[in-house]
Write a structure and sequence with these properties.
Pfam family, one: Glyco_hydro_42
Protein name: beta-galactosidase
Catalytic activity: Hydrolysis of terminal non-reducing beta-D-galactose residues in beta-D-galactosides
Number of strands: 33
Number of domains: 3
CATH class of the largest domain: Alpha Beta
Keywords: Glycosidase, Hydrolase, Metal-binding, Zinc
CATH architecture of the largest domain: Alpha-Beta Barrel
Radius of gyration: 26 Å
Helix content: 25-40%
Distance between the termini: 23 Å
Number of helices: 17
InterPro entries: Beta_galactosidase_Trimer, Class_I_gatase-like, GH, Glyco_hydro_42, Glyco_hydro_42_N
């Protein structure tokens, strides 16, 4: 990218009256340089089977091209038109809830041949129309694509083919999945039952893994079509999203982002988060770190909130703070969903930069400040490269496997991931994400594996070798308990990595009135408590950092550390309070020589950094609080870009509420 992209999603077909010229005038005033269009327009582009109408696309492209605003075109396949369902009802996905009913978006079967035929036709029609336009810089495939729980007879048939390839001998399937239990054994492929009724966690988790592969295939199929038309200087992206808890929270259970992103030239993401008094920047950082890690490169924020829900209207300064927080994680764009607030239908109150009256408002006016700053010094921030020494190992397979046994738990996989990530974020520790197939783990000085419940033996052996060769590893409870087929190990737990961890256990329980003892962490009594889960650890070669403080469980270790080869492995066998987790992580960071100048500050002061195109270090200091904060600038002297003033190491700086400084170091 030659510049930062600052933009919005724009829907001319949603407008209550023609105001395209006025919108462009307001966009130019805010230095908006890109719009995203067309991704939800199938029923407008093709109102009836084979009848095409491109007036909304044409008039927006014509106007944006004249105004010097770039355009990203989305394929419209995530929201199907009524005529398609009328002519082909089976295009709607069959899920565990039964046959889909028309109305919502993302309700189709992405494997249905009729749906794919018409989807390909409309994609080709649009690409033929827009690909040669000079203002079109890239393409977005579909929209927040997932498998949509599709599980009809055709999907079941494909799943059986998938299993037959993985298990040529059906007896191996039965043995590995434990299907003899409750007479679930399958003695003939012809007798294979509908998997939606299964109570077997191995079979159920494998089906969900298979469903995720459908997303990879679907996006690759679209990418192949788009690549036939796109120019060499145009990109292909997709706007991935995350587990949703009213906002973007954790690893997406219905897509393996690492696999699905392989067909893209640049990864894209949608990030939504709490704001006002609840704005922490954690979700911005988490989503950015995750997306940057997919291709180890810069990424696009294709959607983020402007005003959003009524409780997301930002305080003064927050929109700007959020925008630069995206860029500080390696984003090359900040794009709002959406430009204007729509006047009908499901997302009427998911508000854009403009409210329903289309007039200037404080959020829009703050976007003008952002656009001006992107325009003035964005060339120094674009293509920011980051080198992190810490990686978090995440696994879709572990997520799914834990979910299959969630009735025994009062937490989810992503609760553990965020438990770890959030504390590292608050300590200003930059993180990448890796997955079980990552091959370059040796480049990291510290790897954290939260709740790696389901893991193949080769991954666990690789972690042993990583520690033996000098790496630092932190593993949490509920790790290495089953293999990749969710078959519980009959060896000592944690399976295989007990070698580097120097600890084992064969009993676990939910804590009730259990605290920790034997440590010297400076925490309150309340912060010393354990919740949700505890494993009764017995050390083999490890040393105990903390025991359980309980009349019966007091003989068991709770947190341990083990020197193995040239490295150190730490095991956290319980869901400890965040204050305890922070103390454990501080010690680990110090042992790995990763506790440096940026850790002298903690949240709400967040520090991010990277290297720009001139290989100069860019340092961000963010104040995620409603109070002004005095800090001491601790990096090399340089130019503070927002004020274009020199700044020296050790200089005192006052950060306004929700304020920031950005420094380009001189060397």
């Amino acid at each position: 990218m030659e510049k930062l992209l600052f933009g919005v999603a724009y829907y001319d077909e949603y407008m209550p009256y023609d105001r395209l010229n006025e919108d462009i005038k307001m966009m130019k005033s805010a230095n908006i340089n890109v719009v995203r269009i067309a991704e939800s327009t199938w029923s407008s582009v093709e109102p009836q089977n084979g009848e095409f109408d491109f007036k909304h696309i044409d008039r927006v492209i014509d106007a944006m091209e004249e105004a010097g605003i770039s355009v990203i075109i989305g394929t419209p396949t995530y929201a199907i038109p009524t005529w398609l369902v009328s002519e082909c009802p089976e295009a709607l996905a069959v899920t565990k809830s039964g046959q889909g009913v028309y109305g919502t978006r993302q309700n189709m079967d992405i494997t249905n041949p009729t749906y794919l035929f018409y989807a390909e036709r409309v994609i080709r029609k649009i690409m033929d129309r827009v690909s040669k336009r000079k203002c079109v810089i890239g393409y977005q495939l579909d929209n927040e694509t997932k498998h949509y729980d599709t599980a009809g007879s055709n999907v079941q048939h494909l799943f059986i083919k998938y299993l037959r390839k993985k298990f040529p001998n059906i007896n191996d399937l039965n043995d590995e999945f434990g299907l003899a239990y409750w007479s679930n054994r399958i003695n003939s492929w012809e007798d294979f039952p509908n998997v939606l009724g299964t109570i077997n966690g191995s079979l159920g988790a494998e089906f969900e893994k298979f469903q995720r592969t459908l997303v990879n295939k679907f996006l690759s199929w679209q990418s192949d079509i788009v690549n036939e038309y796109k120019r060499e200087n145009q990109f292909v992206t997709q706007n991935f999203d995350f587990e949703w808890r009213g906002y973007s929270f954790g690893v997406q259970p219905k897509v393996n982002h690492f696999e699905a992103s392989k067909c893209l030239t640049i990864a894209g993401v949608d990030i939504y988060h709490p704001t006002q008094d609840y704005l922490t920047g954690t979700e911005i950082s988490f989503g950015g770190d995750m997306t940057r890690s997919l291709k180890n490169d810069n990424y696009l924020v294709l959607e983020t909130e402007a005003q959003g829900f009524e409780h997301w209207v930002p305080y003064d300064g927050q929109l700007r703070l959020q925008a630069f927080s995206h860029v500080a994680s390696g984003a090359n764009s900040v794009m709002y969903w959406h430009w204007h607030s729509i006047h009908n239908s499901a997302e009427t109150y998911w508000k854009g930069l403009l409210s329903h009256d289309f007039k200037e408002n404080p959020t829009y006016n703050e976007s003008k400040i952002i656009g001006d700053e992107f325009n003035r010094f964005g060339d120094k921030l674009v293509n920011l490269k980051k080198k992190n020494d810490v990686a978090i190992l995440v696994s879709n397979e572990a997520l799914t496997a834990i979910e299959w046994f969630s009735w025994t738990l009062d937490f989810k996989y992503n609760d553990v991931v965020r438990w770890v990530y959030d504390e590292l974020y608050k300590m200003n520790v930059g993180c990448d994400f890796i997955n079980p197939d990552s091959e370059d783990i040796e480049k990291y000085k510290l790897i954290v594996a939260p709740a790696l419940y389901s893991a193949p033996s080769d991954l666990l052996n690789k972690l042993n070798s990583y520690v033996k060769n000098g790496g630092n590893l932190v593993v949490t409870f509920k790790s290495a308990f089953t293999n990749e087929n969710v078959k519980v190990s009959h060896n000592d737990q944690p399976n295989i990595i007990n070698k580097c961890l120097g600890v084992t256990y064969n009993q676990f329980t939910k804590p009730d009135k259990v605290s920790l003892k034997g440590h010297d962490f400076k925490v309150s009594d309340e912060e010393n408590e354990v919740s949700h889960w505890m494993e009764l650890l017995k050390i083999t070669t490890a040393e105990t950092i903390a025991y359980y403080d309980h009349p019966n469980w007091g003989k068991y270790s709770a947190i341990t550390k083990n020197h193995y080869g040239e490295g150190i492995a730490t095991y956290i066998g319980c869901f400890a309070n965040k204050a305890i987790l922070k103390e454990v992580l501080i010690e680990v960071l110090k042992e790995a020589n990763l506790f440096g100048q940026e850790q002298q500050y903690n949240f709400p002061i967040i520090i991010k950094s990277g290297y720009n195109s001139e290989n100069k270090k860019i340092v961000y200091y963010f104040n995620y609080s409603c109070e002004k904060k005095e800090i001491e600038y601790s990096h090399n002297e340089g130019i503070e870009l927002t004020k274009n003033q020199p700044i020296k190491k050790g200089e005192k700086v006052v950060l306004k509420p929700w304020g920031l400084i950005i420094v380009e170091e001189n060397k």
